Amino acid sequence: MSKPTYNILFLCTGNSARSIMAEGLVTKLSEGRFHGFSAGSQPAGQVNPLALETLEDLGCDTSGMHSKSWDVYAEPGAPQMDFIITVCDNAAGEACPYWPGQPMTAHWGFADPSHVEGDEATRRAAFAKTAQAIAHRIRLFLSLPLEKLDRLALHNEIKAIGHV
Fold first, then answer.
1. 60 labelled catalytic
2. Residue 98: pLDDT band with limits 50, 70, 90
3. Is 90 exceeded by the pLDDT of residue 93?
4. Which of 88, 91, 126, 146 is catalytic?
5. Tally of CB atoms within 10 A around 90
6. Most CB contacts within 10 A, which of 3, 95, 138, 149?
7. What is the CATH number of domain 6-154?
8. How confident is the model at residue 19 (pLDDT cuts 50, 70, 90)?
9. Does the global pTM surpass 0.90?
10. Within 13 A of 110's CA, how many CA atoms are on the CB side?
11. Three-class SS string for the chain?
12. How far apart are CA 18 and CA 26, in angstroms?
């Protein structure tokens, strides 16, 4: 019997760096077990080129990635999410749309690499460090025995990953 495929939505305010990187990383690292999505409460309208470059350096497919509003995932016909993770503190404090299907939610805050100033090498290093931190939490998440944990235990585990 094959394992189910889960949908996971990563939310940030601008949907230009952290949530985009999380989308690409979960899709790659889960090897088909998860389909990653990302969106923002106030989308920037474009993805930070260093976020795309970082993902490509890690072997992630970036085709079709773009900055979009979280509203697209609350509309009828949108993919139903199993998990929703906020990756910035602003998005965690905002009133989210209603998500059909009662997905599990958690907050995994990461510093915004887009705010790092300095030369190109310094900025690239900030994106690489953030991607490494996101990948670490995603690997912890992927190691959870999802099918064996009851809903409350799973929710507690997912929330705890945000404190690692």
1. no
2. low
3. no
4. 88
5. 16
6. 138
7. 3.40.50.2300
8. very high
9. yes
10. 32
11. CCCCCEEEEEEECCCCCHHHHHHHHHHHHCCCCEEEEEEECCCCCCCCHHHHHHHHHCCCCCCCCCCCEHHHHCCCCCCCCCEEEECCHHHHHCCCCCCCCCCEEEECCCCCHHHCCCCHHHHHHHHHHHHHHHHHHHHHHHCCCCCCCCHHHHHHHHHHHCCC
12. 12
Enumerate the domain spans of the chain.
Answer: 6-154
Q: Which of 9, 11, 12, 22 is catalytic?
A: 12
Of the candidates 74, 78, 96, 111, the residue annotated as catalytic is 96
Give the mean pLDDT of 39-64: 95
* Token couple for 36: 């990653």
Query: For the CA atoms of the chain, what is the radius of gyration?
Result: 15
